[in-house]
Specification:
Shape: rod-shaped
Distance between the termini: 132 Å
Number of helices: 5
Largest sheet: none
Order of helices and strands: HHHHH
């Protein structure tokens, strides 16, 4: 490139018109400042792009990891960090979902242990799982009370029958 530049420069050194030569000389002058600014702009742009992409990809990968774990029924061990942007909104929603699922799990364990008075607040009016669990708790509680009444009735009946058998055997 440098040799070509020198060849063109020497070729145009011949005096044709002083005005034209001045214009040609300016056109042929290397522009190191412009070239330097272009390189610096490219480097700054590349660094900025790297940090912007990293700022988007890293949180999305963390959200993806939590969602994949939840899909396998495993709660995350750490809380998702939230920020003040769209990804932060998704993180808040995911954190709320995880907290709700934890409460649902605790409630299910309490009902399974026979605590039919366990409190539970559905996530919203449209929380189908939450309302179904409340109905399940109430239905199981009612069935347990019915079974307890039947046990009492059967026990009383067995006691009556035993007393009847004893009276007849004494005669």
């Amino acid at each position: 490139w440098h040799q070509q530049y020198q060849h063109v420069r020497e070729h145009h050194q011949q005096p044709i018109k002083s005005g034209q030569n001045a214009v040609h000389d300016q056109e042929l002058q290397p522009r190191p400042i412009i070239f330097k600014v272009q390189i610096e702009s490219f480097i700054i742009g590349a660094v900025a792009a790297f940090f912007i992409v990293r700022g988007i990809v890293s949180p999305v990968q963390r959200l993806r990891s939590v969602l994949l774990s939840l899909g396998r029924g495993v709660f995350p061990r750490t809380r998702v960090r939230t920020t003040n942007d769209e990804i932060g909104d998704m993180s808040k929603a995911l954190t709320s979902l995880v907290d709700g699922l934890r409460r649902t799990t605790e409630f299910s364990h309490a009902v399974a242990a026979g605590d039919f008075t366990a409190e539970y607040q559905p996530l919203s009016d449209e929380d189908m799982l939450g309302h179904a669990l409340l109905k399940l708790r109430d239905d199981l509680g009612q069935r347990e009370r019915i079974l307890e009444l039947k046990v009492v009735e059967r026990t009383e009946e067995v006691v009556r029958q035993k007393e009847e058998v004893e009276r007849q055997s004494q005669k």
